[in-house]
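Changelog-adjacent note: as of this version, every example in the card shows the full chain rather than a window. The one below runs 270 residues end to end.
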Amino acid sequence: MEVGIYTPNPSPLPQGEKGQKIRVGEQVVTEEAIASELQYHPAEQMEAAWQAAATSLVIKTLLEQRATERGITAATEEERTALLLEQELIVPEPTEEQCQHYFHSNRARFHTPVLLAVSHILLPAAPDDMPQRDQQRILAAQLLRQLQADPGSFAALAQQYSACPSSGQGGSLGQLPKGQTVAEFERQVWLLPVGLCANPVETRFGFHLVRVDQRVEGEPLEYQHVATRIRQYLHEQVTRRALSQYLQVLGAEIGVEGIAFNAAGSPLMQ
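Full-length structure tokens:
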């Protein structure tokens, strides 16, 4: 599904709730400002893009007003916001007990990656070239039958037919961790046992005849190897919650009108 990016145009934009102007304290967030901000908030529907853009500007205005109230100055808006949050945002560090609890409650997440040694024969076909794809599909089936009858012919067939540079190594891609190949290839291949795949693997590049030469399963990691990662993750979670609560309180203190203000939905929370 295509996701559109909205840019300012002469057509009417959505208004605030019940046609109200959006206000932060005494300051109005203008329709022109929201229109300019829309380009940074892609969404499938105009209303969602408008809501995200308006919310972003409300948060920006809240922080600007609070920084002015506190007498905070800086060379850039980002530095000014950072100084403000450094003064006002209270984020407790995760305790050792919390980190240990998270580790033991999510034990399956902490493993060394599965490693595969894979060889393949790529029969190329452009995604939109249906006649070529049909032809290569037929060839893939023929070669697969040949490989099933004579597994030792894989390297020779790779050198003869494969469009991948790995053909010079008999089709060998070497040892692969996850994330090194295109998603549609990875989704299928990482589920395979050792040996020749019973069916061609189709991707945007064409058809792959795949052989898993070795599979090394991930090993459980001990706590000391992931403690820093867990502490950082928990700190980020607490920071997002604290920031969301801070902005909601700030919105209540300064006053936000004309929009259903939900700080948790802002890109600042991502």
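Structural remarks: The longest helix spans residues 223-254.
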